[in-house]
Design goal:
This protein has one helix at 13-20; strands at residues 25-29, 35-36, 52-56, 60-69, 83-90, 97-100, 115-124, 127-134. The chain is mainly beta. The chain is globular.
């Protein structure tokens, strides 16, 4: 499936740089202990911006839910239809969600509740993005 190429700004650049190092990071407020994604200038919990830092995650989570896209408005994705849209909740903080098409998982066969792990795929010569795959327990 074709993926958009991110255009990092001052706030998101550390996240995208970490992806290029195959690390998944989220913002972390050192004042109120709040973790957040996507990155923002201020903490969504306490409003401070001077105390935001980055925290590396385990890159593990679980499938919280999903939908299926049968008719996308994005022309580049028409050949891929239908496709899964899974909501991935992080192991460290289930309030933090990422999205995935779960490559290799048949449409409408998304195992909600299954454990997943991040891996990184290139979308250009100089940018990688996170993607997710189901992992076997045990």
């Amino acid at each position: 499936m074709p993926r958009p190429i991110p255009i990092p700004d001052a706030v998101s650049k550390p996240f995208w740089d970490a992806c290029n190092e195959k690390r998944l990071i989220v913002q972390y407020c050192k004042i109120c202990d709040y973790k957040q994604f996507p990155p923002e200038e201020d903490c969504r919990e306490c409003g401070w911006h001077l105390h935001l830092d980055w925290l590396e995650t385990s890159g593990r989570g679980f499938i919280n839910g999903y939908s299926v896209t049968y008719d996308s408005r994005i022309m580049a994705w028409h050949e891929e239809q239908p496709f899964n849209n899974a909501v991935i909740s992080l192991e460290e903080d289930p309030k933090i969600n990422f999205f995935s098409n779960l490559p290799g998982v048949p449409v409408n066969e998304v195992p909600v509740g299954a454990k997943v792990e991040v891996y990184f795929i290139p979308v250009s010569d100089d940018q990688m993005i996170p993607e997710w795959r189901v992992i076997e327990e045990g």
